[in-house]
Amino acid sequence: MSVIYILIIIGILFSGSFLLAFFWAVQSGQYDDDFTPAVRILYDDQQPASRADSNIQSETIIKNANSTDTEMED
Q1: Rounded to whole angstroms, how far apart are CA atoms 55 and 36?
Q2: Nearest-angstrom CA–CA distance, 65 and 46
Q3: What CA–CA distance (Å, rounded) separates 45 from 37?
Q4: pTM of structure
Q5: Which residue has the higher pLDDT, 54 or 32?
Q6: Which DSSP string do the residues of 17-70 spell out, in sequence order?
Q7: Cβ atoms 31, 25 nearer than 8 A
Q8: Is the pLDDT of residue 61 over 60?
Q9: What's the CA gap between 58 and 50, in Å, rounded?
């Protein structure tokens, strides 16, 4: 029966620490910006490559794939 008292005290301390952490996060401004995370996925991280660059990259990939295919046939 004494174990239940120890578990209750541990539970109260544990939940109290989470409550204090929550209040600290609110006071420090952790939850102030609730708009940006919702629209962040809509923003592009990188500028799109020019068509010339993408064509060169595509040709390189195709050449590498073709050279691998011919090596397998030998």
Answers
A1: 35
A2: 27
A3: 14
A4: 0.45
A5: 32
A6: HHHHHHHHHHHTTTTS--SHHHHGGGS-SSPPPPHHHHHHHHHHHHHHHHHHHH
A7: yes
A8: yes
A9: 12
Structure tokens at 18: 């989470």
48 in the Ramachandran plot: left (φ > 0), alpha (ψ -120 to 50) or beta? beta
User: Would the CA dihedral through 8, 10, 11, 16 be positive or negative?
Assistant: positive
Over the stretch 4-47, which tens digit does the pLDDT of each residue have? 999 999 999 999 999 999 999 999 988 787 777 777 777 776 66
Q: Which two tokens stand for residue 48?
A: 């799109």
